[in-house]
């Protein structure tokens, strides 16, 4: 039987007492211009409510040895809390679970404190949960890698030799990471020239989503010092949904020889709630076998992924209904998040609290589990039928919705949604 909270939590909720994901919010009733720092604070999701951690901290209810005198919940981001590390995270989780439990009277029987600390989700605006200093995007799904290689290079050796030796990645753009619900303006750029004509320039004709998740870094490492593979787990706070929007025509033309740039850097959307690794532990599963065996610095005693079913829905412009276009799973990743983090630091690169490590597109082995339109339509050679509306790539007005949720025996641990709607490109004079 699952844990029981005094808060009424629907059996279908993504946010029961077993989850308690962290985010950052501000009440809609507070004027942003007058006191944005005061208005913005960390919270935890429970059912249809947000528990205001600044109120709980001010009431002295975080009374454990690691959090008693900390101001980590009186901040406009979670970065200070992330920096404290796993012992503090566990202490906070135990305190919050106790306060929200049906068996504890501290919050349950204090009407004034309960009213100040528990806010309906409809009354708050969710913001980016962390200040993102750096963003790295990996390429860790074997199925996605094989499909992309086949599309662009043909079926002979579609996966580069180095891919099986290390988690391939590129450095992304942190400044354009946005929170779920933010609109996406169609980007402009260059595309492949036709014949002897100059390159195409204008709004992308091949706007795509990429179904990803991302690890949120906790404590970092000093410049010049790497993180051991067996210690990497303790440097990861939790996971979010991530949509790495992609302009495929711009990306294809610019990527040789240095990789993605304008085709990726215009927008990357993350979900507002960070689900902790503690909450995901019941859904840990064996990661795929790696052949060849990785080098010693990437060899783990316990190689785990998480069984997180993922879905992508697309609601075409002007339509009321959204169509499910992808059903994938986090467990398909070939390289684990701990391998990604350990490899990232093996050269001495210093990670910092709040850094975002994207997994790359999470595709599965089946046609229904492909994680982007590039694969689903085989680079526009085919079309998807969205309740009678055809799509090869995204059109203006289309909305993309990601969701992910683990199913326990009698409870769920979910991530909510990660959404974005496509707006037309902004006109320019030249």
TrEMBL record:
<feature type="binding site">
    <location>
        <position position="361"/>
    </location>
    <ligand>
        <name>substrate</name>
    </ligand>
</feature>
<keyword id="KW-0460">Magnesium</keyword>
<keyword id="KW-0828">Tyrosine catabolism</keyword>
<keyword id="KW-0479">Metal-binding</keyword>
<dbReference type="GO" id="GO:0006572">
    <property type="term" value="P:L-tyrosine catabolic process"/>
</dbReference>
<feature type="binding site">
    <location>
        <position position="153"/>
    </location>
    <ligand>
        <name>substrate</name>
    </ligand>
</feature>
<dbReference type="GO" id="GO:1902000">
    <property type="term" value="P:homogentisate catabolic process"/>
</dbReference>
<feature type="binding site">
    <location>
        <position position="268"/>
    </location>
    <ligand>
        <name>Mg(2+)</name>
    </ligand>
</feature>
<keyword id="KW-0106">Calcium</keyword>
<keyword id="KW-0585">Phenylalanine catabolism</keyword>
<dbReference type="Pfam" id="PF09298">
    <property type="entry name" value="FAA_hydrolase_N"/>
</dbReference>
<feature type="binding site">
    <location>
        <position position="212"/>
    </location>
    <ligand>
        <name>Ca(2+)</name>
    </ligand>
</feature>
<feature type="binding site">
    <location>
        <position position="244"/>
    </location>
    <ligand>
        <name>Mg(2+)</name>
    </ligand>
</feature>
<feature type="active site" description="Proton acceptor">
    <location>
        <position position="144"/>
    </location>
</feature>
<feature type="binding site">
    <location>
        <position position="244"/>
    </location>
    <ligand>
        <name>Ca(2+)</name>
    </ligand>
</feature>
<feature type="domain" description="Fumarylacetoacetase N-terminal">
    <location>
        <begin position="18"/>
        <end position="129"/>
    </location>
</feature>
<dbReference type="Pfam" id="PF01557">
    <property type="entry name" value="FAA_hydrolase"/>
</dbReference>
<feature type="binding site">
    <location>
        <position position="137"/>
    </location>
    <ligand>
        <name>Ca(2+)</name>
    </ligand>
</feature>
<dbReference type="InterPro" id="IPR015377">
    <property type="entry name" value="Fumarylacetoacetase_N"/>
</dbReference>
<dbReference type="InterPro" id="IPR011234">
    <property type="entry name" value="Fumarylacetoacetase-like_C"/>
</dbReference>
<dbReference type="InterPro" id="IPR036663">
    <property type="entry name" value="Fumarylacetoacetase_C_sf"/>
</dbReference>
<keyword id="KW-0378">Hydrolase</keyword>
<feature type="binding site">
    <location>
        <position position="139"/>
    </location>
    <ligand>
        <name>substrate</name>
    </ligand>
</feature>
<dbReference type="GO" id="GO:0004334">
    <property type="term" value="F:fumarylacetoacetase activity"/>
</dbReference>
<feature type="domain" description="Fumarylacetoacetase-like C-terminal">
    <location>
        <begin position="139"/>
        <end position="422"/>
    </location>
</feature>
<comment type="pathway">
    <text>Amino-acid degradation; L-phenylalanine degradation; acetoacetate and fumarate from L-phenylalanine: step 6/6.</text>
</comment>
<feature type="binding site">
    <location>
        <position position="264"/>
    </location>
    <ligand>
        <name>Mg(2+)</name>
    </ligand>
</feature>
<protein>
    <recommendedName>
        <fullName>Fumarylacetoacetase</fullName>
        <ecNumber>3.7.1.2</ecNumber>
    </recommendedName>
</protein>
<dbReference type="GO" id="GO:0046872">
    <property type="term" value="F:metal ion binding"/>
</dbReference>
<feature type="binding site">
    <location>
        <position position="251"/>
    </location>
    <ligand>
        <name>substrate</name>
    </ligand>
</feature>
<feature type="binding site">
    <location>
        <position position="210"/>
    </location>
    <ligand>
        <name>Ca(2+)</name>
    </ligand>
</feature>
<dbReference type="GO" id="GO:0006559">
    <property type="term" value="P:L-phenylalanine catabolic process"/>
</dbReference>
<comment type="similarity">
    <text>Belongs to the FAH family.</text>
</comment>
<dbReference type="InterPro" id="IPR036462">
    <property type="entry name" value="Fumarylacetoacetase_N_sf"/>
</dbReference>
<dbReference type="InterPro" id="IPR005959">
    <property type="entry name" value="Fumarylacetoacetase"/>
</dbReference>
């Amino acid at each position: 039987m699952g844990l029981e909270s005094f808060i009424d939590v629907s059996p279908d909720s993504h946010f029961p007492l077993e989850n308690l994901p962290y985010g950052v919010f501000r009440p809609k009733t507070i004027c942003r211009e007058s006191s944005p720092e005061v208005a913005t604070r960390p919270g935890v999701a429970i059912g249809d409510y947000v528990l205001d951690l600044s109120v709980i901290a001010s009431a002295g209810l975080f009374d454990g040895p690691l959090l008693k005198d900390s101001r980590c919940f009186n901040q406009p981001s979670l970065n200070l809390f992330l920096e404290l590390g796993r012992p503090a995270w566990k202490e906070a989780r135990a305190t919050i679970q106790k306060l929200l439990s049906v068996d504890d009277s501290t919050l349950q029987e204090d009407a004034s404190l309960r009213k100040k600390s528990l806010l309906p989700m409809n009354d708050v605006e969710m913001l980016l949960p962390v200040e993102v200093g750096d963003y790295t995007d990996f390429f860790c799904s074997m199925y996605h890698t094989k499909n992309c290689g086949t599309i662009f290079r043909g079926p002979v050796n579609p996966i580069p030799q180095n891919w099986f030796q290390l988690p391939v990645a590129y450095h992304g753009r942190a400044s354009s990471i946005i929170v779920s619900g933010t609109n996406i303006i169609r980007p402009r750029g260059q595309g492949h020239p036709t014949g002897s004509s100059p390159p195409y320039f204008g709004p992308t004709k091949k706007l795509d989503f990429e179904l990803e998740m991302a690890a949120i870094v906790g404590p970092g490492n000093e410049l010049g010092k790497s993180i051991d593979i067996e210690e990497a787990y303790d440097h990861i706070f939790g996971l979010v949904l991530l949509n790495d929007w992609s302009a495929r025509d711009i990306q294809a033309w610019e990527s040789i020889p240095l990789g993605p740039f304008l085709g990726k850097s215009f927008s990357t959307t993350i979900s507002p709630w960070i689900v902790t690794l503690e909450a995901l532990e019941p859904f840990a599963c064996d990661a795929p076998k790696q052949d060849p065996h990785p080098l010693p610095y990437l060899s783990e005693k316990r190689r785990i992924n998480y069984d997180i079913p993922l879905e992508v829905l697309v609601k075409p412009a002007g339509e009321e209904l959204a169509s499910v276009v992808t059903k994938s799973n986090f467990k398909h990743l070939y390289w684990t998040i701990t391998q990604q983090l350990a490899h990232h630091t093996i050269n001495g690169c210093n990670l910092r609290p709040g850094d975002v490590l994207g997994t790359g597109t999470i595709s599965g082995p089946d046609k229904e589990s492909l994680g982007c339109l590039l694969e689903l339509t085989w680079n526009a050679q085919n079309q998807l039928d969205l309740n009678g509306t055809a799509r090869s790539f995204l059109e203006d007005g289309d909305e993309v919705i990601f969701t992910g949720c683990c199913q326990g025996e009698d409870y769920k641990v979910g991530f909510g949604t990660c959404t974005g709607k496509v707006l037309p490109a902004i006109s320019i004079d030249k």
